[in-house]
Batch of 2 targets.
Target 1
Amino acid sequence: MEKLVIIGSGCAGMGAAIYAARGGLSPLVIEGTQPGGQITTTSMVENFPGFADGIDGFGLVWSMRSQAEKFGARIVNAVVEDVDFSGSAKKIFCSGGQVFEAEKVVIATGASSKMIGAKNEMELFGGKGVSTCATCDGAFYRGKDVVIVGGGDSACEEAVFLTKFASSVKLIHRRDELRASKIMAGRIMQNEKITPVWNSVVKEILIGSDGKCAGVKVENVKDGSVSEIPCSGVFVAIGHKPNTNVFSGKVDMDEEGYIKPKSGTFVCTNVENVFVAGDCSDKRYRQAITAAALGAMAGIEATR
Ligand code: NAP
């Protein structure tokens, strides 16, 4: 039986792996469908402490991975399909019929951004003009025109953040009223650089001759009219979903599927010896550094 299995290989999983490996647990990391996690889709990470010149997302998490392996973590390519946390031996059932048993488990499966489903969205995602993280990628749009899609707090917060760099930000929302809190909505309406585009959905992202985003084709849902908005970047901020389906009914979650740490803890679930770290439990901060830090906490708890 394994001493510790870590499910997920993003910043949270690797933070847990480094600490648990150094704590002598020789953790087994199940890397999941996206080895390295969400950060691998970010071209340049400029806000991770310690990298003054920035580092590409893939390089950052792969360096964490080498660090974990150096101390004895083992990484397997598998996808978890089911778990049984009812006994003292935690069972983890993976694709291909592999079953792992462990004394302790860290769940670090992350979250996925919801996407709009517009034409060319995925082709231009990650470095060619479509991003789901203004905090990560906003600075690449200095002096450029961008659009942001969504009407919640995230879209509003990110729109305001983008005005630090972009010359103009068009906020495209499918209704004529923001879902965001009053205070956030107020900031949007008062910001001269932000123009709301109401009752509109993005149907297509236009590709320029350089192979990057050149604009968006937008449909007005009230009258069906279609127009084009030229822009260099499209930020999608229509919410996230935690990657926690397989843990449904196995650990406490909130109504959106985020795993709930026990009151007064950051990383302990309601199930003894099952810990959680990163974006599958944190819907507020969602940064590489905070995920890695929560992973470290889970690794420490598992080692204790
Ligand atoms: P959210 O509140 O669920 O808002 C998502 C927005 O995207 C909504 O305006 C929604 O439109 C729109 N949307 C959803 N699916 C869409 C689609 N397929 N096409 C076009 N638009 C779509 O998500 P969030 O903004 O990420 O916020 C999540 C939670 O975190 C919220 O509780 C929020 O308050 C919180 N949060 C707080 C802060 C803060 O306090 N500083 C910052 C960020 C987030 P409709 O309005 O028409 O449904």
Note: The chain has two domains: 2-112+240-303, 115-236.
Target 2
Amino acid sequence: MTGDNKFVVVANRLPVDRTKSGWRASPGGLVAALAPVLRAHSGCWVGWPGEPDTHVPPFDFDGISLHPVGLSGWDFENFYEGFSNSSLWPLYHDLIVTPQYSPEWWDAYKSVNKKFADAVAAVAAEGATVWVQDYQLQLVPGLLKEARPDLTIGFFLHIPFPSPDLFKQLPWREDITRGLEGCDLIGFQRDEDEQNFRALVGASGPRTGAFPISIDPGAIHPGAREDVDKLREKLGNPRTLMLGVDRLDYTKGILQRLLAIENLLEQGELDDVAVVQLATPSRERIEHYKQTRREVEEAVGRINGRFGSVGTPVIHYIHRPVPKGELGTYYAAADVMLVTPFKDGMNLVAKEYVSCHPDGDGALVLSEFAGAAVELNQAYLCNPFDLESIQQAILGAVDGDPEAMRAMHKRVTEYDVDRWAQTFLEAL
Ligand code: ADP
Ligand code: G6P
């Protein structure tokens, strides 16, 4: 049985989540990047609607045709929280926390990948192009190649691919590389990720390439002057406004940036500063995520207790998603953007910030370990494992360099997400 879709994207998540008041955009860089690509290609998206044990029939949302794949409570615990986010996520992010390996999680990973492959096989037209996304679905290419040899299959890994030494920890390492080898083309964020993979499979494996992902500059608008002024006024019109925008994930180094700010305040090197940290809840039932949240919230409380005053805290912390339309106001208002992950495939937040600063104002503090540092190498780069290095980058950024910001803006707006998708699909 085949369907009638000539272009199919399959990702663990659909680009929308169900809330009490209806559907809204789901979190993360994968969705932010791919939604505009699918609208442009009138393709369909196969993915999980974000809550276990629900049946959702196919529907259209914002110009994209969506084909939900249901996950049971067992799938959610073992495939999503377990193998995807407690084995692969920490392993692929260089063991920031220790990965756990469990045969039951692996069974769930295999059976859910099969579910996704079956769903794609049912909607894809004869000879269609299928683009499989990210670490949750690495067995899908192999399964599809077997079931539907007529398909052209691409895969893109949004997160880093670890060095062979680390990858070899994985008890099912050969199954994963074999699954990926069902592809016609595998895309990675950076050359380094591609080389790590090639070191495992040798020269004879599938075609690979590095395709750094980007943003849709049309989807994120710098806030209007009056909204920016209103926001700064609410924050007490500080001389320097610093901003962090992340999923609340241990890879993002949120605590480290707060500690660097605390040190600078203690040393009297920063004054008249306000910090806004927007942190979207993420993978909340997993213990390492709970712990990261506790540590971040404790630091926010301590820093405000030490350096804030009544009515004007230093750190303004929001643990909720912020509507996309409002993000542009935060980006435009911020003098210094803090992006300090220990490891990150790309980090679209860095690119979104730069795209909101066409005139060269603002400054970006960026971790050397974010994929974005390859293109945005004129940012104030820092080593997030070294608080002194974050502190120096922050102090440099407070003065800013308009030339550097203008050059980065040019790069981000020219090489946008359409160019990324076009380059990958042409290579495919
Ligand atoms: P990741 O994919 O690991 O979440 P990225 O920086 O690549 O990290 O992408 C995150 C995406 O999610 C961006 O498009 C960003 O705008 C959005 N996002 C992150 N944090 C928030 C937040 N607190 N509120 C709203 N959107 C957010
Ligand atoms: C990162 C991953 C995506 C994932 C997103 C949100 O961007 O690369 O695959 O969808 O985070 O995480 P979640 O677990 O909520 O889907």
Note: The chain has two domains: 5-211, 221-414.
